[in-house]
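Schema walkthrough. Field components (list of strings):
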Amino acid sequence: MEAGNPLLDDYVLSLAGPARPRVCFLPTASGDADHYVVRFYRQFASRCDASHVSLFRRDREGVEGDFAAHLLSQDVIYVGGGNLVSLLGTWRAHGLHAVLRRAWRQGVVLCGPSAGSLCWFAEALTAFHSAPYRVQGLGLLPYSNCVHYDAEPARRAEYRRFVGDGMRPGFAADDGAALHFRGKELARVVSSRPRSRAYRVEPIGDEVVETPLDVEYLGARVPELASA
Amino acid sequence: MEPDNPALDDFVLMLTGAREPRILFLPTASGDPTAQINAFRARFGGRACVAEQLSLFHLDGSTRTLEEVVREQDVIYAGGGSLRNLLAIWRAHALERLLIEAWERGTVLAGISAGAMCWFEGGVTKSSGPPEPIAGLGLLPGSLSVHADGEPERLPVWLDAVARGKLPGGWAADDGVGLLFRGRRFERAVSSRPGAAALRVDAVEGELVRQRIEPELLGAAPLGLPPPGDDILELRAVQRARQSRG
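Field assembly_structure (string):
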């Protein structure tokens, strides 16, 4: 849901199979922020069977009743960004960990930006009210993950330091870059912005090595203008 | 934070004894919604206090740790919403421990709805839809059920849970009623609305023993007037709706 740039959303829908896929939004990491839910429907409702599950207003809005069955019947589960720790705490309280793991095993496409990316990994670097720290995610992907790699320079240094100090090796992504895993294997890296990069980050010997990954830009290639 | 009635909020500020108490709002139970934060700022922003909110969802550029923020406060004020989410999120951020330490230092802990029940051993939540018993932080002995008059479907669930021993005995409070504890001891009930009351209920040998608690009416609300009837309440609701449509 990048503003004015549907490339990554289009890519996710292309993975789903049906022409009109069922897409469920989980805005938990934002505290089910109204404006985010509205943005989701604006972006997806015209071409998908779109729904959302609210874990803050279960008595009032979103999917009623058995949200587990609802999530398991989706083609895509789209997890919104926000705070990773609050996301995981809320999910645990409603039994979402097990439901999402089942959905993944069934082949539902799981995706999301920011906290919605970090959550799928075994470990993640998050920053909130203090210096960045390590958080255990759902662990569907047995790696670590760091997002906003280009946007927040401090994170880059911290992530490399953490991986050097024993955090498991993993993947870092700039804003606009998306890591596409099939099962536990990285299949492709795609991007909505021509210059977004992604990296494999791992300790080799005494060093933390950042290996750039091949990133496929999803937009039309525009010949670069000669700089004046 | 009742609309148009600051009596309970002023009561909370008065409890600190500080001339300009520091009050921290935790809107966690509703996911830190802007509307709740705005209501808090509108109520406390112009009062003799230093008001701030702590978001566990949105980055606000603060570089202070949670511990530093909590330690500075005279009052911690928890907002309403989902009690299950509130407790899970506080636990995930290790905020629960900081709040307990604050309470032990003498910080006033206050709250509405889920933000009131959380301090007790248990309460009745609608976090998953229908009302059901849930354990709280357990700083205060017994259980609390809120909205006894405003959400009538809660009370029977609470009474049943107390009768069956799923929840310890405790208090049910009408909207507008505040229960004041010093340490773990219940001291008194206060109210911002004439006619509102609290109920103490215990299970004694399988039987529910009920005792009505008459709260002390706070503030400027005129004494002795009967509570507004349903027709007046309906008229006010219509007026409010018209005003909000501008």
